[in-house]
Amino acid sequence: MSDRLPPLTALRAFEAAARHMSFARAADELHVTPAALSFQIKSLEDHLGTPVFLRLNRAVDLTEAGRALAPGVTEAFQTLNTAWRSTQRLTNDTTLMVTAGPAFTAKWLAPRFYEFARAHPDIDLRFSATLRALDFTRDEVDVAIRFGMDKAEPGLWSLPLEGEWVCPVMTPEMAERFPTPESLAQATLIHDDSISFLRPRADWAAWFRLMGLPFDATHGPRFTGADHAVDAALAGAGIVMGRRALVVKDLFEGRLVAPFAHAIELQARFRFVCQSGAENRPHIAAFRHWVLDEVAKTTSVTDALQKTHIMDIPE
Question: Signal sequence: where (predicted)?
């Protein structure tokens, strides 16, 4: 038995056959004949000095040696495939995979991305809307827009975007019905529970404390998705504590208004994140500049808001 590794083609044939538990299906996957695949596995067994498969009647099973070999070979090919795809992406400046939460994708990226597409017709944008933190290498992600506290993450380059705040927002018609903070006692309050993890909380109860109003802020419909809460406010169903990034376009275009001067400034914010060293790759840099330009377009909309830091609101 040699200490040298068998040929890669033999290991690949074994990995496919062990995964499918079928020589025929493995041969189909590898685009070879069953006879050619059997020959490769036999050469691996000769190299190892022991069988890796039990040839049964119209079936196969792994031997003890095959069961010992299969997990490591599968992992090795997965690692090799990941490394190959990552290297290919270094030469691909025409496809940009962006991941962000569903609410940010729906309320910020989707209404604007046609502007980026028009300015960069050579870049094919792809979106993955998920709250799961995708892996840049394994999931083939180029850029992530993440919400949370500013923090250094090993191997990642991060750029904080505009500061984030929340305040009551509503349709212009709703603002006529509820012209003062005191009148909100009679309004339908829409609750966005997507930021309920923040401490201290930045919700209706916190805003009423900021205004010195002893109102019960527990009533009203609740949404786990911020975009759904904003959609309800846009439909005139009530008044929501709107997050800057998710309502600023509607404020800018007049579909929503923020009639009261006070907002709660959050410690958390959105960040533009990519792998360290990738921030200046042409398609990533183009997308970063576009995001910053889009943020700058609407910064003046809420300049008049008096922002009180969340930590400064008494419990």
Answer: none
Domain boundaries, the chain: 8-90, 95-315
Q: Tell me the pTM.
A: 0.73
Distance CA 129, CA 110 (A): 11
CATH topology of domain 95-315: D-Maltodextrin-Binding Protein; domain 2 (3.40.190)
Q: Are 16 and 53 in contact (CB under 8 A)?
A: no
CA-atom Rg of the chain in angstroms: 28
- Of the listed ranges 91-100, 127-136, 139-148, 166-175, the least confidently predicted one is 91-100
What single-letter DSSP state applies at residue 124?
E
Preceding amide of 200 cis, omega within 30? yes
What kind of fold does domain 8-90 have according to CATH? Arc Repressor Mutant, subunit A (1.10.10)
Rounded to whole angstroms, the Cα distance separating 159 from 181 reads: 36
How many residues are listed for the chain in this entry? 315
Render pLDDT for 252-307 as a digit per residue (tens, 0 to 9). 999 999 999 899 999 899 999 999 999 999 999 999 999 999 999 988 887 778 87
The amino acid sitting at 254 is G
Is 194 in contact with 267 (CB distance < 8 Å)?
no
Beta strands 239-243 and 189-192: pairing type?
parallel
33-76 confidence digits (pLDDT tens): 999 999 999 999 999 999 999 998 888 999 999 999 999 999 99
